């Protein structure tokens, strides 16, 4: 079986290194003073995790200050070893590869994976340990929490193999887990992301579900497409009350760009949609079971406009993209721009005019928006890209996607998942 998740741009690096005073082409703006951290799976030498998503997490960090690139450093997230679920069905949510995202909230840095607890990391990328917010977090935590730019609250959820399948949580601005409530869904859906709007939380109850037979194989990701599960988007008020569920055409969504309420009170959700066939092809590919008959490209920016109990759907563009990002100050609020990573380009969507700009790059990762503080797109995009010598941290002007600077890293950084810019 081809180990697609150990080859090419996904091939892991064998060790932890660091380098100082990195060479730069172009000029780094002095406002870019902080750290860019990006998480992703990086199996140990000789290790085969069975799926791209289940390798141990490694964070690659680049420290920029006053126009210089002070250091690059990569560190595994050193999570607890042991048994994730024992014979009695008891979970140890600290025994997970914390490999998917790295965020900061209340001045603490967390490595996240949706199967378990967050792991706190130091600004120098040392692993501090798992966090359950004083014992209050009793489920896993999504890797895609949403920080409300108005209140500072961190909205998130946990999903699981067994009931409760979905639990909503809210962490206050100062890091206290102040609310947890169960959200009824029909089964163990793999919910990778969700959305918030000004007044609502938006759920994606989609037909990729837990499969016990796959779980007994004890390798890889025990989830598969289910033609019978149906597909629903739900919304509930942040302040409480029931969820309104709206049937949609079956699809899968890993990543939300943004959601908002429009002037008519509709919920407008922009996210990257996979058709059933595209999901199955992609899932086989990253599980090490590629099927040449299956389509593996075709994840596209898509809009659902939800009015009461009906949803209108439209594809916004035909490019294959992933990792949608925005200016996070617009999370849940009206916004004009979405950025994304295409196969060999970074893409900027102007959702008001319909214009699309692109910047060619080899295998770009998620393009993180770093604000300068003016207009919505006044700032930079930061992304890891492949080069002839390995990898660069690419910095683009977010307004016109022109090249600002490239920080030359000491070696190739495998394609990974998500990260953030942590300003000083
Ligand atoms: Fe993700």
Structure characteristics:
Neuraminidase, 2 helices, single chain, binds fe (ii) ion, 424 residues, mainly beta
Tell me the overall shape. globular
Largest sheet report: 5 strands, antiparallel
**Distance between the first and last residues' Cα:** 46 Å
CATH domain topology: Neuraminidase
Give start-end ranges of low-pLDDT stretches: none
Mean pLDDT: 95
Class from helix and strand fractions: mainly beta
How would you characterize this protein structure?
The chain has helices spanning 212-216, 276-286, and strands spanning 18-20, 24-26, 34-41, 57-65, 68-76, 101-105, 108-112, 119-121, 127-130, 146-147, 154-159, 166-171, 177-182, 195-196, 200-205, 208-210, 223-225, 232-237, 240-247, 252-261, 267-274, 300-307, 310-315, 321-325, 337-342, 345-350, 356-360, 368-371, 379-386, 391-397, 403-408, 419-423. A hairpin with a 2-residue loop joins strand 4 and strand 5. With 424 residues, the chain is mainly beta. Fe (ii) ion (FE2) binds at residues 100, 143-144, 192, 254-255, 417-418.
Brief overview:
This protein is mainly beta and 424 residues long. Helices cover 4% and strands 43% of the residues. A hairpin with a 2-residue loop joins strand 4 and strand 5 (68-76).
Question: What is this structure's SSE topology?
Answer:
Elements: E1 18-20, E2 24-26, E3 34-41, E4 57-65, E5 68-76, E6 101-105, E7 108-112, E8 119-121, E9 127-130, E10 146-147, E11 154-159, E12 166-171, E13 177-182, E14 195-196, E15 200-205, E16 208-210, H1 212-216, E17 223-225, E18 232-237, E19 240-247, E20 252-261, E21 267-274, H2 276-286, E22 300-307, E23 310-315, E24 321-325, E25 337-342, E26 345-350, E27 356-360, E28 368-371, E29 379-386, E30 391-397, E31 403-408, E32 419-423
Antiparallel strand pairs: 1-5, 2-31, 3-4, 3-32, 4-5, 6-7, 7-8, 8-9, 10-11, 11-12, 12-13, 14-15, 15-18, 16-17, 18-19, 20-21, 21-22, 22-23, 24-25, 25-26, 26-27, 28-29, 29-30, 30-31
The site of fe (ii) ion has 8 residues, from strand 20.
């Amino acid at each position: 079986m081809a180990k697609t998740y150990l080859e090419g741009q996904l091939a892991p690096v064998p060790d932890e290194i660091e380098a100082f005073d990195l060479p730069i082409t172009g000029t780094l703006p002095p406002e870019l003073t902080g750290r860019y951290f990006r998480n992703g799976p990086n199996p140990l030498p000789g290790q085969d995790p069975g799926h791209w998503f289940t390798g141990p997490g490694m964070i690659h960090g680049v420290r920029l200050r006053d126009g210089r690139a002070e250091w690059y450093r990569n560190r595994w997230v050193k999570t607890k070893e042991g048994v994730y679920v024992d014979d009695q069905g008891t979970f140890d949510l600290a025994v997970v590869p914390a490999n998917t995202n790295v965020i900061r909230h209340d001045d603490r840095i967390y490595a996240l994976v949706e199967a378990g607890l967050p792991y706190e990391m130091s600004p120098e990328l040392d692993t501090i340990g798992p966090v359950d917010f004083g014992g209050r977090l009793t489920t896993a935590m999504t890797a895609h929490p949403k920080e409300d730019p108005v209140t500072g609250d961190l909205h998130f959820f946990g999903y699981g193999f067994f009931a409760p399948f979905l639990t909503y949580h809210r962490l206050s601005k100062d890091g206290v887990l102040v609310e947890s409530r169960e959200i009824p869904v029909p089964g163990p859906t793999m919910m990778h992301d969700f959305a918030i709007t000004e007044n609502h939380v938006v759920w994606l109850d989609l037909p990729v579900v837990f499969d016990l037979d796959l779980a007994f194989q004890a390798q890889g990701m025990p989830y598969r497409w289910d033609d019978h599960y149906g597909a629903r988007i739900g919304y509930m008020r942040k302040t409480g009350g029931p969820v309104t569920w709206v049937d949609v055409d079956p699809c899968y969504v890993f990543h939300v760009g943004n959601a908002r309420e429009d002037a008519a009170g509709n919920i407008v959700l922009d996210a990257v949609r996979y058709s059933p066939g595209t999901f199955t092809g992609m899932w086989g590919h990253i599980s090490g079971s590629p099927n040449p008959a299956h389509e593996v490209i075709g994840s596209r920016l898509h809009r659902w406009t939800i009015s009461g109990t009906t949803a209108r759907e439209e594809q916004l563009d035909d490019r294959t993209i992933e990792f949608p990002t925005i200016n996070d100050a617009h999370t849940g609020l009206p916004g004009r721009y979405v950025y994304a990573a295409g196969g060999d380009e970074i893409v900027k969507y102007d959702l008001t005019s319909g214009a699309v700009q692109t910047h060619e790059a080899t295998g770009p990762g998620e393009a993180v928006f770093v604000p300068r503080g003016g207009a919505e797109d006044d700032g930079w995009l930061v992304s890891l890209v492949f080069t002839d010598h390995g990898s660069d941290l690419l910095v683009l002007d977010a307004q016109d996607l022109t090249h600002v600077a490239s920080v030359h890293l000491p070696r190739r950084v495998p394609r990974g998942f998500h990260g953030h810019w942590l300003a000083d």
